[in-house]
Amino acid sequence: MKKLKSFSYFEPSTLKEAIDVLKEEGRHALPLAGGTDILVRMKRGEILPSVLVNLKRIDGLREIKKGSEKGIDLGALTSISAIEHSSLIQSSCPVLAQAASLLGSPSVRNMATLGGNVGRASPASDMIPSLIVLGANVVIDGPNGKKTVGIEQLFVGPGKTILSPGELITSFFIPEMEINTGAAYLKLGRTAGMDCCLAGVGVLLTLSSGKNVLKSARVALSAVAPIPLRAKKAEKVLLSGSLSQDRINEAAQVTADESSPISDIRASASYRKEMVRVFAQRAFSIALNQVQVGHH
């Protein structure tokens, strides 16, 4: 670990102050949310910001509440453990609580925030696949005002987002899940929860009423491509006819084929690909079982 390079530190109490400082300091300034990731990377010398802007004192950024439209609003500073334990999230989009429970250790989940996890744009994020399959929107505030983008539009490369200097993620909106919908997120890490995700599969399936045919399907992957990946070919397979075991197996294979994992010290590409297939198959089954349970 290197000695930290000196930096300036701001603790604004309003969003406007935070945006002003970030804009003025430009690319050398970073917002600080949970700090679980940024401080480690600074110590390793991977990033060397000259300014840190702590967002923790800004009010209104850590709420979990029913949105004005049908769905849930989640403040960007909501901790991962608050998401894991929220009864509102457990009842309306349990896949997000499930993903939260798989991230890091309890102490990391207490510190880490949803905005920090997503804004880091790590291809191995545990939270992003669930947000993608849930069709989440991201609310961004900045020098030019507010805008909302679909979560998939946010990422442009490993660790890179569309955010320009001064722009901050302030909240997320998760639309209400349709009836007859099931969802699941499965990840492969070497030790229970503590290791970085080696491969993750998020799935959301909505059945047409009363038929063995899907009305919609979303599949998203983490840690197997440069950015969190939507497996659109697999979705097409799932939507192309009645849901036989053969179709589910084929969709799982296509999911694996769409992934482009790397080999590194933690796992080989071929092992990761095979695990994507296994996890996709398992996640499809879990999601379908949830729908069936909902039917009765």
Q: Give the full name of the CATH homologous superfamily of the largest domain.
A: CO dehydrogenase flavoprotein, C-terminal domain
Based on secondary structure, the structural category is alpha+beta
Number of domains: 3
Fill in the CATH topology of the largest domain.
Enolase-like, domain 1
Secondary structure tally, helices: 11
Beta-strand share of residues:
15-25%
Radius of gyration: 19 Å
List the helices and strands and how they pair.
Layout: E1 8-10, H1 15-25, E2 29-32, H2 38-44, E3 51-54, E4 64-66, E5 71-75, H3 80-85, H4 87-92, H5 94-101, H6 106-111, H7 114-119, H8 128-133, E6 137-142, E7 145-150, E8 155-157, E9 160-161, E10 168-175, E11 181-188, E12 199-207, E13 214-222, E14 229-230, H9 232-239, H10 245-258, H11 269-295
Parallel strand pairs: 1-3, 2-3
Antiparallel strand pairs: 4-5, 5-10, 6-7, 6-10, 8-9, 11-12, 12-13, 13-14
Helix pairs in contact: 9-10, 10-11
